Amino acid sequence: MPLPPAHDWQTFDALHDDPEAWRPAMLDLARNAGPDQPVELALGGTVLVALAGDRVIKLYPPFLHDHFAFERGALPLLAGRLAVPTPHLLADGEHDGWPYLVMTRLHGEPLTARWPGLSTMERHRLLEALGKLMREVHELPAASLLHLAPAWPSFLAAQRAGAKARQTRTGLPAHLLAELDDFVAVPLDESVTPVVLTGEYTPQNLLLTGTALAGMYDFGDGLVGDPRYDWLGPCCFLAAGDAEAQAALARGYGAPRPDPADLLRLLLLHRYSNLTVQVALDGWQEAPTLEALARRIWP
């Protein structure tokens, strides 16, 4: 059965929310990808995902072909080269014009489920391990991915141009929105060596065994650029407002934490910036200025 068309986010979201419309395609791909195994549809995320035994199948809408291409390039670069497992690429192709990847399935518990019950010491150990993992990825050669991502200065320019509209849509408080354009116009240091940015180090894409990191996955929204961009996920989702937790992340990375104002600029320019869901810190909206907000998130 052909896949229904999905030319933009609105039509894709409607399809994503109707799993029976894309189940036949996933069953076909699972049969072609290896031994017959039960297929489970994963209903979260921004692409179509099926779990088939020890395999994961990811089907990308055609308008996210760039995400497909970056993940296809990143998987072999990362696999087997880090202290934490990442999926191995098994196959790629197209189904009705939709690109897909087949990869190995990782095992473990999602960090989202475990984080609330972890002790302070366990949290700090995990953040230190995350810092080490970030440093390992940033030390890998990025040359093979450069042609799969926008040039970093061009990416920042486009994000600055769209920042006001995005932050208005996602609910940045009016008093902070009023100073947004001037704040993000401040130049970031662009002399840093571009590195592989996975777009991850967030609890949604990390797995644990016990209290130890056991896997990282999902690299479709990766980039090549400023290493500080990767500090945003763990700082905002896991350690917002907690200086000791952020110190553990920096200790693992082996470098001081970047300037808070620059981190906030990168957060406001992030590809998926939405502070209302990304900053796990009660009352951040009450900060009187963006500079004050930066110090509140990164004390």
Description:
Helix 5 runs parallel beside helix 10 (243-253) and helix 11 (260-268) packs across helix 13. The protein is globular. Helices cover 43% and strands 15% of the residues. The mean pLDDT is 94. The strands form three sheets. A five-stranded antiparallel β-sheet has the order 1-2-3-5-4, with helices on both faces. The termini are far apart. It is α+β, with helices and mostly antiparallel strands and 299 residues long. It is built from 13 helices and ten strands.
Tags for this model:
10 strands, 13 helices, 15% strand, alpha+beta, 299 residues, five-stranded antiparallel β-sheet, three-stranded antiparallel β-sheet
Brief synopsis:
Helices cover 43% and strands 15% of the residues. The protein has 299 residues and is α+β, with helices and mostly antiparallel strands.
Tell me the layout of helices and strands.
Layout: H1 9-16, H2 19-33, E1 39-42, E2 48-52, E3 55-59, H3 65-78, E4 89-95, E5 98-104, E6 109-110, H4 111-114, H5 120-138, H6 152-170, H7 174-177, H8 180-185, E7 195-197, E8 206-209, E9 212-216, E10 223-225, H9 232-238, H10 243-253, H11 260-268, H12 275-278, H13 290-297
Helix pairs in contact: 5-10, 11-13
- Helix-strand string: HHEEEHEEEHHHHHEEEEHHHHH
Mean pLDDT: 94
Looking at the chains present, what oligomeric state does this protein adopt? single chain
Q: Structural class per helix/strand content? A: alpha+beta
